[in-house]
Amino acid sequence: MVAVCVAPTDLRPEVDDLTGTVRSDLRRADLPAAEAAALEYGLRIAEEWGGWVLVACCGSAAADDLLREARALGAEVVRVGTAPSPTAGPLGPLGPLGPHPVAPGDLAGHPAATAAALAGAIRGHGQPALVLCGDRSGGAGVGAVPAFLAAELGLGQSLGLVSVRTEGVGRLVVERRLDGGWRERLAITGPAVLSVEGAGVRLRRAGLDAVLESAGAPFDVRSPNGSQTPPGEPVAGGMHTSASRPYRPRTRPVPAPTGDAHERLLALTGALSDREPARVVGPLTAAEAADELLAYLARRGYTT
Amino acid sequence: MTDEQQAPDPPVFDAVVVGAGPAGASAALALARAGRSVVMVERGPFPGAKNVYGGVVYGRVLDEVIPHWWEQVPVQRWVVRRSTMILTDTQAVTLDVRSQAWGAQPYNGMTVFRADFDSWLAQHAIDAGARLLTSTVATGLLRDGSGRICGVRTDRPGGDLRARVVIACDGVNSFLAKEAGLLPRADATHMTLGAKEVLALPAGVIEERFGLGPHEGLDIEAVGGTAGVPGGGFLYTNRDSVSVGVVVSLNGLAASGRRPEDLIASFKAHPGIASYLKGAEVKEYSAHLIPEGGYSTMPELATDGLLVAGDAAAMTLAAGIWLEGVNFAIGAGLEAGRAAATAIGTGDVSAAGLSGYRRALEASFVLRDHKRLRLAPDLVLSDRMQQQYTKVLCDIAEDLFTVTNPQPKPGLVRIMRRVLRRHRVRWRDLARDGLDTARTFR
Fold it and tell me: What is the distance in angstroms between the Cα of B215 and the nearest Cα belonging to chain A?
């Protein structure tokens, strides 16, 4: 089982300029890019390992539609949290689709408790071969949950990964950023908690039939207290660094230029070629900036 | 056995409703209540996520289908003040109507946030048994071997959705109605652009500034005030914000070279409006096309396997003093849903089988109002009405109330003569337009 932990969040909350109060509307909740990447990695790994994906979420029922979308992608789903009570405004209740409070669940803002609840929910479905998280949640998250989760599950951890690929069943090669533009490559052969950056992969869309099938279907919902279990014993897992060096993107072979030395030099440097030099056009008003952008696109043939 | 033989048949619904706005949700509600299987296909992440409107929702159309709707609708404020303003650059003539009866059951109009209202209405359809498919775009129509429409294509993998009837409630400039050959090529003459800002203001300030009680709201509709571009403006109160914007002729806007946000700024800066907005902070900006052509620009409403409702069928009523859209969309959606349910029951979903839709609309306020007021859109957006009569009316009012003692008061007829001469309006044109106005609004 590959477990993927998600926390759907309103990615564009309103912030009061004066008070700093954050107002979220969980109808707009979506997976942050990092969690979408984690889910896509989870699905790919499960396909290659012949396993299955468990999506674990700590939040309110407002996230259910998104969880059903994950279910339509073939994942099992468990949510830890309580159903939100409809907000009763001065003019009456807004109903189940009305605005919800900021916190997606009782545990929001408490990474240790969130991790404990998620760990319990995951264990309730079996022992994970791998746990994937986003490197940070979309709300006020600081990226602490994966580390707490590793401690709860007794697994090794590798956080902030920029790429994850399989090398046979049960074996992964992952890469993460280090300070100073360095990258570290690790080989992972045992159960581990990984957190990934929101880059490199794009979450697939669920098929129509699967979406229709999963719409309205019930799934496992647990209370935060009921899902907590004692921290697990450390699991011996293979995780070792195979390389640590400055990041150097692979070179891209291009055909060698032809002609005499002068022509080859011009081709290699781009000198004297017809091009539009970079220029500073600001500061501009919004309207002027829009004009500038549109004119640029028109010149480049994008709007014709 | 081939792959094709192994593939399971796609699900077949009684109806697919494209768009979960007011028209779509109402159609789905009617179908679900008639016991039909129906799925709403909504491109946004939730109903109302993509919608924009510019005024008041009149909810009485819901009386039959959601008893005591006012007890649960996600209202911002109940409109008890309705002001109609005629604006020039420096003048304003206002007809201000206030009724406390509008602030009590069964209420008249309300301001809402469409994200709340559309979700609420769609939830009623879901509760009745309809299914909702969000974040899914209907990209085209499916046709069977005989060319009859039998579903829609979507942008999801394996995205064919088969149904006996498709109801296109996909909004202005409906791609589905166009694909079906019902909607002619879009004509900018019959479109206006609505652009609005939502500005934050504390509820207490709104109530003090606009003379309102708690939960009470104001709706201002203005002709003019749009920097010479044919159209008008609006301002309405939400719970702790006001929505202010303009609705302008698309051709007029293009000819002027102005930007919509300039026109909003111009409207907000009008002396008759500016003081209402002091200290308000912009929270949101949105814009949308409005099909204001009315009755004469409506497409055919039904063809084999397809009905069209709401903005997709140009059902927004823009008749000067009446600017309504959501209630017409709901009314049309309900009738579309009922007609589709009946046609499915009889097994005849051809254009003839679905013709009950048009008959029902003609018997209801939807087409009766549109038919009666069919001359209004052209009249309201005519040059004389927009450019000359606003100035004439404001000048007459100004002269009437300007005291020039020691000279005696000039008398109304003399003022009118003077003002008409000043603006080069001929009595003959005035009489003809007066007659047209009387005929339009009789």
Answer: 7
